[in-house]
Structure formats: C-alpha cells, structure tokens
Specification:
- By secondary structure, the protein is an all-alpha fold.
- The chain has one domain: Up-down Bundle (Sodium/glucose cotransporter).
- It contains 23 helices and no strands.
- Helix 4 crosses helix 12, helix 7 packs across helix 8 and helix 13 runs antiparallel to helix 14.
- The N and C termini lie far apart (68 Å).
- Pfam families: SSF.
- This is Sodium-coupled monocarboxylate transporter 1.
- It catalyses: butanoate(out) + 2 Na(+)(out) = butanoate(in) + 2 Na(+)(in); chloride(in) = chloride(out); 5-oxo-L-proline(out) + 2 Na(+)(out) = 5-oxo-L-proline(in) + 2 Na(+)(in); propanoate(out) + 2 Na(+)(out) = propanoate(in) + 2 Na(+)(in).
Length: 613
C-alpha cells in the first residue's frame, strides 16, 4: 500500500507532549515560593533526590540522535555498538568515584570554578590561567550552542522528509517551549520535564519494537535474520586503532570520550551536584546507568528489527529515503500507519530527546555565564537580581539555540565538521581535570602547557580526519540488499546536501599520513587528547617544582572519599561544605579571583560536625 502521511491525531499527540512540558515549567516557577536565589534557579536549591536526577541524566544524554541515529547505525554496521553497554558502566564508575566526590564536597556551581580553585591559588600566573578557564568555558558554550542547533535541526529535517511533519513549525515550537520552561522553572523544571520525556522516549521505542515483533511473527525471526545478515557482530577483538568500531576502540576510546561528557561536562555535573546528599548524587549516577542500558537495548532492538524487515529491500539504497537517520521514521510510517496517533508518539519521542538535551544545554549555559562571567565581576548584585539575570540568560540562550538551528539548515556539513572538531576539545579538558584531581603535584604551568599541547594534537588529527575521511575498509559497513524491491520511483525526492562534497578530495592525492594518523578511530581522538594533556602536564609540573607546593587535600581525591562509601554518617549532608576553605590572609587582596569565595565563607560560619573531609 501507499506510505502513510501524518494525520490530525499525530499532531495532537505531539502537541500534548509540548503542552505537558510547558505546564511543568509553570508549576515549578511558582511552587515553593518560586526561584528566590540564583542557586535555586541554577541548582534546584541542592535539594533534588536521586531518582528524578538519574532519569534526567539519562534523558539529556539521549538526544534525538539516539532515537534516530543508533538504530540506523546498528542497521548499517551491526550490533557491535552494543559493546557501549560496557563503556557506560566504566564511565559511570569513573564519574561517581573520581570526579563526583571532589566536585560535591566543594559545592561548586560551575565546573570551571574548580580549575580556578585548584590551580590558581599558588600561582601569580592567576591572570593567565583564569583567561584559559574563561576561554575554556566560552569554548564549551560555543560548542554547546552549535551542538544544540544541530540537535534541534537534524531530527526536524529527518522527520520532515519522511512524514511531511512541518519543519520550521517543529523547530520553533520545540525551541520556544524549551526556552519557556527553562526560563520559568530553572533546574527543577528541567529535571522534571526530563523525567516525563524519558517516559515518552521509552513509549515511542516500545511501540515500534512491539509492532515490529508482531509484523515479523515473533522475536526469534528478527534475531535469526540479524544473525544470518551478519548483524550480530559483537566480538571483534581486532586491536587495530584505525578501525572505527572494535571491542577495544569502544571500551577504551568510548570510555574517555564519554567520561569527558559525564564526568566534567557542565550540564551533567550541574545535575548531580544538585542532589541533597552525596549518597543521592552517587545513586543518581548508578540508577542512570540502568536507564542508559535500557535505552541502548531499545535502540539495538529497533536496529535489528529494521534489518529484519528491510533485509531484501533497503530503502536507503533504493532511494526511498535520502539519509540513514530517516530509516526509523520510514519504518514507523510503514508498519504503524493503521494506528492513528502512534506515529505521532514516535515523533514526540524523537523530539523529547531534543527537548531534554536542549533544555540541559540552556540551563548549563546560563549557569556558566552567571557563575564564571557575571558573579566574579559584579560583586554588588543581590541574589534576587542574580536570579533574574539567570532567567534572562536562559531566555537569551534559548533564542541563540533557535538561531543556531537556522544556521544548521544553511550549512549542515560545515557544522557537522565543526562539531566533531569541538568533540575533541573534551579530551584535553578531561585531562586537565584528571591532573587536578589525581596529581597533587600538578601546578598551573604544567596544566597550561599540557592543555595546550593536548589541544593542538587533537585539533591536528581532527581537522586531518575531516579533510581526508577514512576509507570504507576502516569503517566496515555491512551488506545491504535491494533484490526484493519492486518500486519504480521513490516517493521521496532525494535532497542531497550539496555541502557534503566540500570535504571529499579525490583519492589520488591522499598523503601518507591520511591512512595511518588521520584514519584513527574517532573514539580515540579524546583518548589521545586526555593522555597527552596528562603526560605533558605531569612532566612540566615536575620540572617546574610541582613537588614543592602543598595542595590543599580537599581539591584532590583522597582515600577518605572512597572509604566514606561504606560508612554513611547522617551528618554527611551539604552543611559540611560550609567549612572555612581558606584562611583569610592577605592573599585575598591581591588575588581577585578568591575574594568572593572568602567573603561568602566568612558570612556563614557553620561549624563542621567533627568531620575530617
């Protein structure tokens, strides 16, 4: 039969999803007396409990890219992608046991605040390092807004081409609703809308999986087809670092790449620091792991169902769809067109992914701007004013993100390239935090030189790999068949993006480096950046007398941090954070970076309840 288009019911379901999200925002704007301080607005007043935060972490991690991209990835390259389940486990362990204890006990709003505390104190190079920290946060905000533009635009495009779902209507609607609830409700609204959106995503996935199993008469047939189609390629232990996905690239490279996102990325750290106790913060990460596994399993099943249904007639080669991420919407319309409202549920689930990612970016951008760029320079602002400024910033960044989506529509390929290059920034930054938390002797000079060298090498490989994309034998796409197709012309006009041709240089002129150095698996880019930053940082710190400095223990990961997992004392709440972190010496006067922290501490002299932290 003919492929379905969108019906009224689908639009109703989609609108309902946006409406519920907006209502949550309004509720948290007025619940409990509203947002009194910027801390309330940006960190939910540090009173969140583990479960909503866990679901929220899962949601913002799962953008529409997951809903549309992962099944297509498995369809094209096979289920080796599922090895990421191991990676997620390692990432959560690292985040919860290495980064979280330090960030939590310091009670930080912006992760960059930590770099300032840890490195500047002993250096009169304060200016330089602060400048780097500012650039780092600006870089992150830059990449986040870029990223957010793509996150809003890419799914809108894929869904529009398959379902005829209005493109700019969807982009503007999602952008506006998102900005609306971020601006009104702050972090609490972001977290609770995320919880709702995870529900929608799982519902969307489930409807596709259940229907596909019914169409294929049982899950056995799907698994069987996948097995004979070579899609169950879990165990590929090839140690070659050039091959795109092997067991090692995913477990080692993936761990570094995602720890950069989970352990030290502002939008994630901000969530788990908002928990009411450190126990809740850790629990939220571990519960979130279960969520990640569930979503990965759903996406994998969808990918295998895709293959099983289209094994004899691949819509992509048959020019039915013009890009791989349109396969999922195509499948949904193909098998669910008799069920009014269900395709709408799937689209709602893809957009839930978008909304949750965008809202966390907006909130994180507002936090970084207020904490790193406004608070240190305008001391006289009252808390009430700062919370209004935070709201204004949310509004502003929401606008910027919608503008970025418009930009993404004009220069898609260039933005994709920029994005993958920004992805490499994560590596050196992770290295910088690792140096600070794990090496007591690392000093500012070492950290600076390490960061720059890691950055330069990452950029070199990254830009190289953009100019000379790796050859197909490195990426190993699996066989797709069009033998069973009997369609004369596609119902979709192929809208090839003319910009993708920019980067493809003729094969003849590939330099020697292109097939060794530049073909490195994309997952190893961060790993390279992190390791170089750490190694260079350690060497330079030792050469510049890093052993002579005595670093305050609370900026490091100590064995007490680990042992306190096993003794849960009641007094281990946020109150214990208001001890006096600095003795107020003359230092505060000549080092402007710290005076606001000292003033803050002097005002709330809470005695620590006999805890050695």
């Amino acid at each position: 039969g003919t492929m379905g288009r969108f019906t009224v019911w689908d639009y109703v379901v989609f609108a309902a999803m946006l409406l519920v999200s907006a209502v949550i925002g309004v509720y948290y704007a007025f619940a409990g007396g509203g947002q009194k301080t910027s801390k309330d607005f940006l960190m939910g007043g540090r009173s969140m409990s583990a479960l909503p935060v866990a679901l929220s972490l899962t949601a913002s991690f799962m953008s529409a890219v997951t809903v549309l991209g992962t099944p297509a990835e498995i369809y094209r390259y096979g289920a080796i992608f599922c090895i990421f389940a191991i990676t997620y486990g390692l990432v959560v362990l690292c985040s919860a046991e290495i980064f979280l204890p330090v960030f939590y006990k310091l009670g930080i709003t912006s992760t960059y605040e930590y770099l300032e505390l840890r490195f500047n104190k002993y250096l009169r190079l304060c200016g330089t390092v602060l400048f780097i920290i500012q650039t780092a946060s600006k870089l992150q905000s830059c990449s986040l807004t870029l990223y957010t533009g793509i996150v809003i635009y890419a799914p809108a495009l894929a869904l529009n081409q398959v379902t005829g779902f209005d493109l700019w209507g969807a982009v503007v609607a999602t952008g506006v609703v998102c900005t609306f609830y971020c601006t009104l409700g702050g972090l609490k609204a972001v977290v609770w809308t995320d919880v709702f959106q995870v529900g929608i995503m799982v519902a969307g996935f489930s409807s596709v999986i259940i229907r596909a199993v019914v169409v294929q008469e049982g899950i056995g047939r799907i698994v069987n087809d996948s097995y004979y189609g070579g899609r169950l390629n879990f165990w590929d232990f090839n140690p070659n670092p050039l091959q795109r996905h092997t067991f090692w690239t995913i477990v080692i490279g993936g761990t570094f790449t995602w720890t950069g996102i989970y352990g030290v990325n502002q939008s994630q750290v901000q969530r788990y620091i908002a928990c009411k106790s450190r126990f809740h913060a850790k629990m939220s990460l571990y519960i979130n792991l279960v969520g990640l596994w569930a979503i990965l399993a759903c996406a994998a099943l969808c990918g295998l169902a895709l293959y099983s249904i289209y094994k004899d007639c691949d819509p992509w080669t048959a020019k039915q769809v013009s890009a791989l991420d349109q396969l999922m919407p195509y499948l949904v319309l193909d098998i669910l067109h008799d069920f009014p409202g269900v395709p709408g549920l799937f689209v709602a689930s893809a957009y839930s992914g978008t909304l949750s990612t965008v809202s966390s970016s907006i909130n994180a951008l507002a936090a970084v701007t207020v904490e790193d760029l406004i608070r240190p320079y305008f001391r006289s602002l009252s808390e009430k004013k700062l919370s209004w400024i935070s709201m204004g910033m949310s509004l502003f960044y929401g606008g910027v993100c919608i503008a970025m989506a418009a930009l993404a529509s004009l220069m898609g390929a260039l933005l994709q390239a920029a994005l993958s290059i920004f992805g490499m920034v994560g590596g050196p930054l992770l290295g910088l935090f690792a140096l600070g938390i794990l090496c007591s002797f690392a000093n500012g000079i070492g950290a600076f030189v390490g960061l720059v060298s890691g950055f330069v090498i990452s950029l070199w490989v990254g830009i190289g790999s953009q100019i000379y994309p790796p050859l197909p034998e490195r990426t190993k796409p699996l066989y797709l068949s069009t033998a069973g197709c009997n369609i004369t012309s596609g119902n979709l006009t192929s809208t090839e993006n003319p910009l993708t041709t920019v980067f493809h240089t003729p094969i003849a002129e590939r330099p020697a480096l292109a097939d060794s150095w530049y073909s490195l698996s994309y997952l190893y880019f961060s790993t390279l950046g992190t390791l170089i930053t750490v190694v260079v940082g350690i060497i330079i710190s030792l050469l510049t007398g890093g052993l002579k400095q005595n670093t305050d223990r609370k900026f490091l990961l100590t064995k007490e941090d680990f042992l306190s997992n096993f003794s849960r004392s009641k007094s281990e709440t946020v109150e214990a954070l208001n001890w006096k972190p600095f003795t107020v010496t003359a230092e505060g006067t000549d080092n402007p970076a710290f005076s606001h922290i000292e003033m803050d501490v002097a005002s709330n002299k809470n005695k620590v309840n006999g805890l050695h932290i």
